[in-house]
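Follow-up to my earlier ticket, as requested here are the two runs.
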Amino acid sequence: MMNQHLRKILTFVFTLLVGGVVFAKTPVFHYVVIKTDKGTCLLKLYNETPKHRDNFVKLVDSGYYDSLLFHRVIHNFMVQGGDPDSRYAAEKQALGNGGPDYTIPAEMQEGLIHKKGTIGAARDDNPAKQSSGSQFYFVQGRVFSNAALDSLEQFRLKGKKLSDAQRKAYTTVGGTPHLDGNYTVFGELMNGVETIDNIAAVKTDEKDRPIRDLRMSMKLLTRREALNLEREAAGLPAKTGVLTRFFDLFSSKRY
């Protein structure tokens, strides 16, 4: 009788362990919801740039970006934020030099380009092109004709040729091709790209700071939220059942 009871207990524990492994699947990407005074958007972080991805996840999860301003806005170019000095900045205060006391090594990838809706890491003029520890920009840019890209190659890029993939992106979606190879691109918006257009359309002062403060807040999706997002993107239903919620109790919300 005792052995039978013990076997039932062991079987139950084994089932929990196996179920926990099955249900503890890890999402492919990290995702961040960004709320602004001009709309909300969903950001996917690239795995090809792990140092930038992990740093951004850490800062978002700590609430670092909450209440910071988009302090530099240039229409048809980009919108920039992430300076911690902007949280309590006075009107007309110069911004753009704040951040953690570290930089991130450059992680430029040939296929990760400055098409509209991507996020890039801001930096100063350091020769190694290391990124700011916190400041970032969203690309707005503009749509180019092939003739305009020909001119860009000849004059601004000093003869360097754009790839077919670059030309396709910049003549359809648009962006800022002259930044490619100079700044690390580490993610792209899954939705809410119009938020960038809304921010880029505001009135700014002589230093490109919006006349009216534009604030942000960010939230990292949990493991389950990210998994369900990826399931829905693949045409599958989200997992929200009792069994899923039960096994999620034994898994971390982070990944």
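Run two:
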Amino acid sequence: MRVSVVLVLLLGACTMLGLVRVRAEGSDAPRGVALGFVFDPKAECEPRCEHGGVCVRNNTCFCSGGYEGETCQYASCFPKCKNGGECLRPGKCRCPPGFGGRYCHKVTCEGGCWNRGECTAVNGVVKCICPSSWTGSRCEQAFCPQGCRNGGVCVAPGICNCPDGWVGGACHTAVCSLPCVNGGKCVSPNTCRCRSSFSGSRCHERKTLH
């Protein structure tokens, strides 16, 4: 009986201090608001109050700090978990992929965004927004608007790294170590295309007419 009296006094003090987190059955009062009530030591709650909650009237639980719900079954995070995060325990959110921070309020791109890319959420999907000269999931790939032909690789915005035998902004010009003559044209590395009256690797031989 002495324990019941102490508990009544304790709950009364909590009520005066605004600490009581009770939601009486059928009440429209918001959770966490102090309500006047009479503690019933013979009260029964079914299902039982969880997470240290105390049954103060039939089917009415007094929840400990950090929990709420009819049976104190829900952990409470304040501020609320954002961006679809789940409150695991008081003040601790589990964040979905792409979000971080204590309350899932920060957007995070795995690996970061390179080359001044900006990590942002678009329709709930986290992605890097790249400047015009970069592309790729992390803005890691340079963009060459002219393209890189003949096996060339774009290594910086607008700059191609060309394989041996090719030059030009788009690796589109073949190189012949010995120049083509007599109107011949270098069409691939060290390969000349000759006019009809000439032949040879450099178009240096005149064809003999029979």
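The only thing I checked on run two: Residues 1-35 have pLDDT under 50 and may be disordered. Let me know what else you need.
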